[in-house]
From TrEMBL:
Its main location: cytoplasm. This is ArfGAP with RhoGAP domain, ankyrin repeat and PH domain 1. Residues 990-1079 form the Ras-associating domain. CDD domains: ArfGap_ARAP (cd08837), PH5_ARAP (cd13259), RhoGAP_ARAP (cd04385). GO terms for biological process: regulation of cell shape; signal transduction. The keyword Ligase does not apply. Residues 362-485 form the Arf-GAP domain. Residues 82-92 have a biased composition (Basic residues). It holds the Pfam family SAM_1. It is found in: Cytoplasm. Residues 165-257, 276-365, 575-682, 1092-1213 form the PH domain.
């Protein structure tokens, strides 16, 4: 070695190698000269901090050349010259992919997973770790693998690292698990973590995946075969030759035989086992009968046959999520789509499905994420927290507002629109993030940006990471759309000065001032006054202010948005303060139904300030026992006196499902606290509610009949029996009279909803939480019921008539006008008392039905109600004036006095009296049938209405005169009188009068028909045909149809079905029509050809939307099985329906056939896929809890729909769809029952030829066949007299 070379300085030598960064390290270790580096090895270089293998090779090669043995002392000085970097080439002689070299052992295997864990990517190695370089014949690159255990402070798994490369792959024959001698050809791949085999080399997803950490041993077993032994199973493979077999065995043994790698693998994964698996559990995969155990880990989804295989490390395959897409398909199903295959999964519940879909979508986002931009932006400390709610590690940003925020706030920013907030991802939108934009976010940061955006945020309105979606929407809208909390610029309001200040400021690097100017109204595109640089952007470019240019470029189109919200200064609302002592019980998570004694209350010092309600142990404590924010309150209720140990108490319900009970010694204290608290959480738009003496006040979500898509927020106050509401979409408040509700439903269904119907308007109410909804529901039900014994305290109709009076009058008018002794006969006392109690409990729910309730029982209920009502119908103050009027002799003066007294009655009493007298007027018109004339009715009702003992004759006289002079006293005009008389005449027989149409609904085709209780659909049909004189033909199938115009459906009534119950259930949009049933003949032919009564097949199915507008939209394919007892719905076809066992395939839904009504047709607004649809209505038979459902079915062809409908009718009517001898039934309707006159048979004139032939045959068989034929007509119904 030349002397000059050994004395060369290390710094100069390293500079010639372009590695001058290590000079200080070498000198610090006492190696200042090149000669002192002669004995360096790779390990020494590692200790010196030379980590990259390329740098190590360059240094060692240079030392070898400088100190080679062949160099003489006189050799000229040769300065080391660095060699150019080159890619690793495949050595000569290696032609087979993954082939093993005889003179070089295969590379050691990287760290593997434990027995029950999917693979984890390699963590980045520290600079001082010892590295070796191994070439892989299948790749033109180097892979660096550790050979020593990791240091204690090794970094965690980096998800951005690439997956493990393939070590060896090729074709092998695999022995099946059953031990058959027939081998299967498989394409086998081995990498650092798994041994996998496929059907062919083009397959992406394997048939089996075996963790290398679960392999116990690998050994030769002769005949080119080797076996891979795991903890639970042995896999046998066969190669083409012994050489290839030996290569596989060698590589596999190295992969499983390195104990150091095992320790590293095990140790490095123990701490990650809890965090790697984002989700795991059983899912059903379409195409397989059994469920699979699915593990979602980082950016991969692993499939296992069961949980045991998962623990043993033997799986089926894994799916890379960076090429996946998740699609929500059906109720419990979702698809994971890749470019190579679609995996259709089905979870056990809807909730689990949502969790899987959300987890997989997050996994896809993570797989596509790039942490480079996020890491740089998070380097600014304030950017590590959401600018709106403070959540950690925000991954989204508004590139024009210069703020970084979390995922939950990002959804609300998107709702603002791109003209206000341009939302971009820090991880996925890499192309957007230019170097200037990143520098802009690092310069400003959330802290500096919020000096402008959030300069005036009241503490009560600030967001938290746990804030709900509604609070986030309200806050972010106020912050960025309205500019509610921003710091106003001193030039605010002066457009010219703002533009001038912007043009001046863009020449500097103060971007925060530019942001303040722009979002206070400065025009980004204003004219600068310099033709060379006409805009602020051009001006900033001329001064090389790149960050200013970037900010202005992102806000080119925000001018209109800014001008919309810069008109009004934000003024913080006045803070409400109050303090004092209250008595408090422990908060609970359920309604308080029991009485709380005084001993259960604790005295607490309470303060209300700045939207926070604090309670302390005493007034001397500074640390509160608890805090309740006003924005968390959803309801406040004032309890009635003496409900608890303290006479005056109130309850507070929070959105965290907690109930707080407070009490005080006096009423005034409670009133002051209630007033202060409600003012703090009730918005200004609902302040009118505070002026009422409410029992309960709070917010509820609601939907009305015009909008069922999304609930709106409303504020409600309950005052007595009136519910006052301030709706979001209306000005002022509306009053809902709860006692006048037509229907009230309350239940915990579809997110806790209550249903109120009043004035033909439907309102759906939904509580914020279950706890407050239950309290609202109970309070509304109590307020909607009868609260006392006076008429005004009863449940009322829209006409202010008590429901009990209205229902009884209506029932008696329909069923008892001709009943002899009506109102005079006594009913059964036990039934009268029970019915009266039902009316008093909830009159709205009582339905009087013929057959279930007797007329005399109902009439006595009405009389007893008037006898027991507090104050009577004439009121206790005026009853004597009514009685004295009966003594007036002048009829005109008497009527005038009655009219005066009638006008002075309360509204409910007046309406009730008029309805009752109207009814009694109808009853006395049928005195010939019911024997109840004016005098008899007066005797019965006088004592009941005046609540006397029956000895006062004037009571009866008053009632009699009110009925007699009904028209004059109650001012009934001539038209009303005539209409009423017509109704009375029509109702005289007690039958129901209805309008039936012939063939179509039009005025010329309508017929008014009396409907007795026993009339069938066939009798009604013949009645209409007889009136129109329509004769029947051989193939005519006339039928009565129930038509619903609103639903666009119709249903043919069965010929034996009673018409009256159908009429009573018809709505205002329904009617009856008699027309031909053109499909009946085809239905009868189909039923005659059927062997089995059941039917099965695919139909398109859609559920009716729920009360809140929820439910699955659109039609979906479902498999139906209709048996003699039930209709079953299956999600898909598994096996033939006759192979279904009781446990093998449980139906998704099942309904009893007897409870189904099937209508033909589906309304068009549902957009049915075909025009051949059925609407099915299910009504349960349970009286205690009736249930009604409706759904829609669509068939592919008209024939298919006809067959389904025929099967339904056949099952529901035991195969008797149409009478076998319909013409005889037709004839029996037309001909009287007495078909003989004396001993002579009669032949009908009407009927078909067959009917007449049958009648003639009967006549011929008669013993008096020689008698002449007698044609019976209406005149012949009179008694026959002999002419002699």
């Amino acid at each position: 070695m030349a002397t000059g070379t050994g004395s060369l300085a290390v710094s100069e030598w390293l500079s010639s190698l372009h590695l001058e960064q290590y000079a200080d390290t070498f000198q610090a270790q006492g190696r200042a000269l090149l000669s002192q580096c002669r004995d360096l090895t790779a390990w020494d270089l590692e200790q010196l901090g030379v980590g990259p293998p390329g740098h190590q090779r360059r240094i060692l090669a240079s030392l070898q050349r400088a100190f080679s043995e062949g160099s003489g002392d006189d050799a000229p000085e040769v300065r080391p010259v660095p060699r150019p970097r080159s890619k690793q080439r495949r050595p000569a002689g290696h032609s087979e992919v993954g082939g093993a070299s005889q003179d070089r052992p295969p590379p050691p295997i990287p760290p593997r997973v434990t027995l029950n864990r999917p693979p984890v990517r390699f963590p980045p190695m520290p600079m001082f770790a010892l590295l070796h370089v191994y070439r892989l014949e299948s790749f033109n690159q180097s892979v660096y693998l550790p050979v020593s255990s990791l240091p204690p402070n090794a970094p965690s798994v980096d998800p951005s690292l690439p997956p493990s490369p393939v070590i060896k792959m090729g074709w092998l024959d695999k022995n099946p698990p059953q031990g058959s001698m027939i081998y299967q050809r498989r394409w086998v791949k081995l990498d650092a973590d798994y041994l996998r085999y496929f059907d062919n080399e083009k397959e992406v997803y394997s048939k089996r995946i075996i963790s290398t950490s679960s392999i116990a041993s690998v050994s030769n077993i002769g005949e080119q075969k080797f076996e891979v032994v795991t903890h639970s199973r042995t896999f046998v493979f066969r190669a083409e030759s012994d050489l290839e077999r030996n290569g596989w065995v060698s590589v596999l043994q190295d992969a499983v035989g390195d104990p150091r790698c095992r320790r590293e693998s095990k140790g490095s994964l123990l701490s990650l086992s809890a965090t790697n698996h984002e989700m795991q559990g059983y899912l059903e995969l379409r195409g397989l009968r059994s469920k699979l155990y699915v593990v979602l880990c980082n950016d991969k989804v692993f499939l296992y046959k069961n949980q045991e295989d998962y623990k043993l490390g033997i799986g089926i395959t894994f799916i890379d999520m960076n090429v996946g897409n998740v699609k929500d398909t059906d109720r419990r199903s979702f698809d994971l789509t890749t470019p190579y295959r679609i995996f259709s999964f089905m979870a056990e519940t809807d909730q689990l499905k949502e969790q899987w879909v959300e987890a997989m979508r997050e996994s896809i986002a993570e797989a596509l994420s790039n942490y480079e931009v996020a890491t740089k932006i998070w380097s600014e400390e304030s950017n590590g927290f959401c600018a709106d709610c403070g959540a950690t590690k925000p991954e989204w940003a508004a590139i024009n507002l210069c703020v970084v925020f979390c995922k939950r706030c990002a959804g609300q920013h998107r709702g603002l629109g791109p003209s206000i907030s341009k939302v971009r991802s820090l991880k996925m939108d890499k192309k957007v993030w230019t170097e200037e934009l990143i520098q802009l976010f690092m310069l400003l940061g959330n802290a500096r940006a919020n000096l402008f955006w959030a300069a005036n945020v009241p503490p009560s309105e600030a967001l938290l990471p746990s804030s709900c979606t509604e609070d986030r929407r309200r806050f972010i809208t106020a912050k960025y759309r309205e500019g509610k909390y921003r710091r106003y610029h001193q030039l605010f309001g002066n457009q010219q000065e703002l533009d001038n200040a912007l043009c001046i400021n863009v020449q500097s690097n103060d971007v925060l001032e530019t942001l303040s100017l722009v979002f206070c109204g400065a025009d980004v595109n204003c004219y600068t006054g310099n033709p060379e640089y006409p805009t602020p952007i051009a001006l900033a470019q001329s001064f090389n202010q790149k960050l200013q240019v970037e900010f202005l470029s992102q806000n080119r189109n925000t001018g209109e948005c800014v001008r919309r919200f810069v008109t009004v200064h934000y003024m913080a609302p006045p803070s409400i303060t109050h303090n004092g002592f209250l008595f408090k019980t422990a908060s609970v998570g359920r309604p308080i139904t029991e009485r709380k004694a005084k001993e259960e209350f604790s005295r607490r010092w309470c303060t209300l300030n700045d939207g926070h309600f604090n309670y302390y142990e005493s007034d001397k404590n500074s640390t509160p026992n608890g805090v309740l924010k006003m924005k968390e309150i959803v309801c406040l209720a004032v309890n009635p006196p003496e409900k608890h140990g303290y006479n005056h108490t109130f309850e507070i319900y929070s959105d965290s499902e907690r109930l707080y009970l407070f009490g005080a010694d006096n009423l005034e204290t409670v009133k002051e606290w209630v007033k202060s608290i409600t003012k703090s959480f009730i918005p200004a738009s609902a302040e009118d509610l505070l002026n009422r003496d409410f029992e309960r006040i709070g917010k509820l979500r609601y939907k009305d009949g015009l909008n069922l898509q999304s609930p709106k927020l409303g504020w409600f106050a309950l005052v007595g029996s009136t519910l006052h509401a301030c709706f979001e979409d209306s000005e002022g408040e509306e009053a809902i009279h709860l006692r006048k509700l037509q229907e009230l439903f309350s239940g915990w269904v579809w997110g806790h909803c209550g249903l109120c119907v009043w004035c033909f308007r439907t309102l759906y109410i939904e509580g914020e939480r279950k706890l407050d909804f239950l309290s609202w529901s109970a309070a509304i039900q109590q307020a909607a019921g009868s609260s006392g014994d006076t008429l005004s305290q009863q449940q009322l109709t829209e006409a202010d008539i008590p429901v009990i009076v209205d229902r009884c009058i209506h029932y008696i008018t329909q069923c008892g006008l001709t009943s002899e002794g009506i109102y005079r006969k006594s009913g059964v006392n036990s039934k009268i008392a029970a019915l009266l109690e039902m009316f008093r409990r909830d009159a709205r729910s009582v339905r009087l039905k013929e057959g279930e309730h007797q007329v005399d029982d109902v009439s006595n209920v009405l009389k007893r109600f008037f006898r027991d009502v507090e104050g009577g119908i004439f009121t206790s103050q005026a009853s004597q004036q009514w009685l004295s009027t009966a003594a007036v002799t002048d009829e005109s003066a008497k009527i005038a006095q009655y009219q005066f007294l009638l006008g002075s009655l309360p509204r409910v009493n007046k309406a009730t009296l008029q309805a009752l007298v109207n009814h009694l007027y109808c009853v006395q018109r049928f005195a010939d049938h019911n024997q109840m004339n004016l005098h008899n009715l007066a005797i019965v009702f006088g004592p009941s209405l005046f609540q006397t003992d029956g000895k006062d004759y004037n009571a009866g006289r008053v009632v009699e005169e009110l009925i007699e002079h009904y028209v004059a006293i109650f001012n009934v005009n001539e038209q009303q009188l005539q209409k009423q008389l017509d109704e009375i005449t029509a109702l005289g027989s007690g039958d129901f009068i209805c309008t039936v149409y012939l063939e179509e609904k039009k005025q010329s085709a309508e017929q008014s028909v009396k409907i007795p209780a026993t009339m069938t659909a066939a009798e009604l049909t013949f009645e209409i045909l007889d009136r129109r004189k329509i004769s029947l033909r051989e193939k005519d199938y006339w039928c009565c149809f129930e038509v619903n115009e609103k639903e666009e459906t119709e249903r043919p009534l069965h010929y034996q079905e009673k018409v009256l119950p159908v009429l009573q259930s018809l709505g205002t949009d329904s009617y009856l029509v008699v027309k031909k049933h053109f499909s009946m003949e085809a239905m009868l032919v189909y039923l005659a050809s059927k062997v089995d009564v059941s039917k099965h097949g695919m139909m398109k199915f859609r559920e009716e939307r729920s009360l809140l507008g929820l439910g699955i939209s659109g039609f979906h394919d479902r498999y139906f099985i209709l048996t003699s007892t039930s209709l079953r719905l299956y999600k898909e076809v598994r096996v033939r329906f006759w192979e279904l066992g009781p446990k093998t395939n449980r139906p998704e839904k099942e309904w009893p056939v007897k409870c189904l009504k099937v209508y033909q047709g589906v309304k068009k607004k549902l957009r049915p896929p075909t025009c051949w649809g059925l609407t099915v209505v299910y009504e349960s038979e349970r009286q205690e809890k009736p249930e009604k459902q409706q759904w829609y079915l669509c068939c592919d062809t008209q024939t298919e729909m006809r067959e389904w409908f025929a099967t339904f009718m056949s099952i529901q009517h035991d195969g008797n769809v149409w009478p076998a001898e319909s013409m005889k039934a037709r004839a029996s309707r037309a001909v009287p029952l007495d078909v003989r006159l004396g001993n002579v048979s009669l032949i009908p004139l009407r009927g078909s030829e067959n009917e007449m032939r049958n009648s003639v045959a009967a006549f011929a068989a008669d013993p008096l066949a020689v008698s002449p034929i007698i044609l019976r007509t209406d005149e012949m119904r009179r008694p026959h007299r002999d002419s002699s």
